Hints:
By secondary structure, the chain is mostly beta strands. It has one helix at 2-14; strands at 21-36, 42-43, 47-59, 64-85, 94-116, 123-149, 152-162, 170-183, 189-199, 218-230. It has one domain (21-230): Beta Barrel (Porin). It has an eight-stranded antiparallel β-barrel with strand order 1-3-4-5-6-8-9-10.
Amino acid sequence: xxxxxxxxxxxxxxxxxxxxxxxxxxxxxxxxxxxxxxxxxxxxxxxxxxxxxxxxxxxxxxxxxxxxxxxxxxxxxxxxxxxxxxxxxxxxxxxxxxxxxxxxxxxxxxxxxxxxxxxxxxxxxxxxxxxxxxxxxxxxxxxxxxxxxxxxxxxxxxxxxxxxxxxxxxxxxxxxxxxxxxxxxxxxxxxxxxxxxxxxxxxxxxxxxxxxxxxxxxxxxxxxxxxxxxx
Length: 231
C-alpha cells in the first residue's frame, strides 16, 4: 500500500496536468463467433450482441495508463455438429445434426496497457494491449435438430435451452484495441474505439453425445465497438 501511494504521489508531482485516476462508462455493440477445434464441429456464423460497463484509467506517465474496469457481455456464436436426442415418446436416441446458437452472458474484467498520443487540438489517439478474464453468468441456446426418417428430413426446434452445465465458468483472452479520445475539457473525454478480443481458452465442456471420444472445444472471439466517456 505504501508503494502504491508513493507511485501515485510521484505521478501527480511529475505530471501535474494528468489526473492519476479517471473513471467512466461505455456501451459497446459487438459481433462474436465461435471457432471450433473438435472433429465434426463447424462454425455456422456469428451473432450480434452488446456490452455495457465501466472504465477506469490509472496514469503511469503522461501518456501511458493501466486500463481496467468491468463489462457485462451479451454474445455468442453458432455451431453445427453431430448430436443425438430422445424425441417424443421414443426410448432410443435419434442421431442427427444440431445447429446451435449459443447465447452467453459473461462478466469480463480486462487489464490492458493503454498508450495515448499527445493532443492534436482536442483529439488524441490511443492503442491498447492486454488480457481479459470473464466469468460465465448465464448460457442458453436456440437449437435446430435435423434428422432423417425413411430418407425424409425432419427438424425439431428448441428455444432458450439452458446449457450452463455445458459451458466453462472462466474464459481468458487477449485484447487488442485502438481508438480516439475527444476532450470536452481538460479531464472529460468521449471515447470511440474498436477492440478485438481473442479467446485463449476453451468455452465448452463435456464430450460429444454421438462420439464420446470427441471432446467439445471452441474459442469465443469478438470485435467490439466501444462508445464511452471518461471523467
